[in-house]
Amino acid sequence: MVKIFTNCSERTITKFDKLIEKEGQVEKSIELDLEAEFSSLALDIIGLGVFNYDFGSVTKESPVIKAVYGTLFEAEHRSTFYIPYWKLPLARWMVPRQRKFHDDLKVINDCLDGLIKNAKETRQEADVENLQQRDYSSLKDVSLLRFLVDMRGADVDDRQLRDDLMTMLIAGHETTAAVLTWAAFLLAQNPSKMRKAQAEVDSLLGQQKMTLECLKRLE
Ligand code: HEM
């Protein structure tokens, strides 16, 4: 999966590079909404890592991406609202935001159902030991969905599978984006720590240090 992380990060770096190149020509300071950028990056990574679906949100907008952000917004609302009014019998039809939520959910569910169907059709049954021995570096699809379908058998419940994937999407998206955003914010304020972090990244990833160079210019 590290390949997925690297490929997606490179897309973000290319986007930053282009912006720096463009803005650099007119010699003005560069403004970048890192929270939005890291959210897109995290969404692309979690999509590919969990269900082998490329949201491509770093470079474009799509109805599925909008629906994902809509449901994440609603999840946040529900986790902080005191009265669970959405459980009332007619709420999902009467309350506009609940109607929108159910519309968004349908878009995502349809997308996930298609991916689950496809994973099941191309299923290669294996037990945990076989799955652990697999040469993942040669596989095109290393997603969690592929793993779960291959391991759990043909009769795995689609609803359960879809809910598990949704859990991963929600748990893994905003958390990661928030960590990246705050880390970037704090590093930008601490040049010596930035250099230390950069040295560590360089020692691990060789020449791929553009992200930190971009951040330095945003200090
Ligand atoms: C830096 C990023 C992340 C942070 C800061 C983070 C933080 C947390 C925290 C604090 C909990 C415990 C919540 C509680 O029990 O009250 C948790 C649980 C969980 N996280 Fe993460 N998480 C991150 C990334 C991820 C990712 C990438 C995934 C999945 C792909 C994920 C999946 C889960 C799941 C499934 C649980 C529930 C575990 C359980 O209770 O059985 N998280 N996470």
Task: Tell me what the structure shows.
This protein has helices at 2-25, 34-51, 63-80, 91-94, 96-121, 128-133, 144-152, 158-189, 191-205, 210-217. The mean pLDDT is 85. The two termini are 31 Å apart. It is mostly helical. It has one domain (2-217): Cytochrome p450 (Orthogonal Bundle), CATH 1.10.630.10. It contains 10 helices and no strands. The protein is globular, with a radius of gyration of 20 Å. The structure holds protoporphyrin IX containing FE. Protoporphyrin IX containing FE binds at residues 167-168, 171-172, 175-176, 179.
Keywords, separated by commas or semicolons:
219 residues; mainly alpha; Cytochrome p450; 0% strand; globular; binds protoporphyrin IX containing FE
Q: Write down the overall geometry.
A: globular
Average pLDDT over all residues: 85
Question: How many DSSP E strands?
Answer: 0
> Helix- and strand-based class?
mainly alpha
Q: Determine and state the CATH class.
A: Mainly Alpha
The value of Rg in angstroms is: 20 Å
Q: What low-confidence regions span 5 or more consecutive residues with pLDDT below 50?
A: none
Helical stretch tally: 10
Question: What's the CATH topology name?
Answer: Cytochrome p450
Percent in strands: under 5%
The helix/strand order is: HHHHHHHHHH
Domains (count): 1
What does the largest sheet look like? Answer: none
In percent, how helical is the residue content?
Answer: over 70%
